[in-house]
Amino acid sequence: MRAVKLQSALKVVVTAIFVVAATIGLLWLVSNVVQPKNNQKEFGQVAEAANGILGEPNRSLDAVFIGDSEAFSSFSPLQMWGEHGFTSYVSATSGQRLTYGYCLLEKALLSQKPKVVVFETNSIFAPIEPDDAILSLFQNKLPVLEYHDRWKRLGAQDFAGKPLATWSDPLKGFVVNRGVNPADAANHMAPSDEALPVNVVNRQYLIAMVKLCKANGVTPVLVSTPSTVNWNTARHNSITELAKELGVDYYDLNMGPNKVPIDWNADTYDKGDHLNLSGATKVSAYLGKLLSEKYGLPDHRSNTAFSQWSASFEKYKQQIAEAF
Question: Cβ(239)–Cβ(252) under 8 Å?
């Protein structure tokens, strides 16, 4: 009787394993069909600008920026190119969670070998629930879970073609914010001994991202961009301790020796939540100099192999001149 029960239990286990394997295999096959065949919105690509990094030539970027809207509103790769000659890209999305930040980082490092990856710290505090982390893990490996709605727009190329990445954002992920809407900065970064705890799941994701960088020979750096809405001393204290624990450099541009002199009457377009072009210009000038000097990012401006960057910079200068 015991042998019969054991045999029956073994049969159930084998059947379950077969069903799971078959399901995963089917999802993998369908994923190959529904995932976008190019990294542009017209092909169904989500977060087009952030994924534009995949269209950059292999091993051509010296720095990569990861984060939420604070990142793409603050860091201008083309300004940094014009002032220091290194190449960079902002792979950022609105309301980005570290789950997606990890995904973007992982994809970027498949084709890029930057010296530095800068993590804008606001997304570290965007809470991640355990079930969201599990779903994100499966979405990263099985694109059908993210692109299941694409079946309505499938074409012949989706069944026969291989995924490509032929497009890159002209501004390298930077978003030009125009307009001015002053912020009340009276109590911004007021002294405090409080340290705001980082969600356990968020903490593990940040640790994983730092490890991924170091495993690829990349220096991870934490940067807090100026914001009266999103940043405070309690967050600063927490990230300071976390950076020490992880053994990474941390620069808070809101206070202390790395403070960027933001004019909160003129340098924000939405009452201190994000910087406008004027504020981003100040941040990019400071950070570009820091990255160039401290981390030894190379100056490619005299290298004809990077002539497209010079051409993009000229177009950028014209666009900026029209913005003011």
Answer: yes
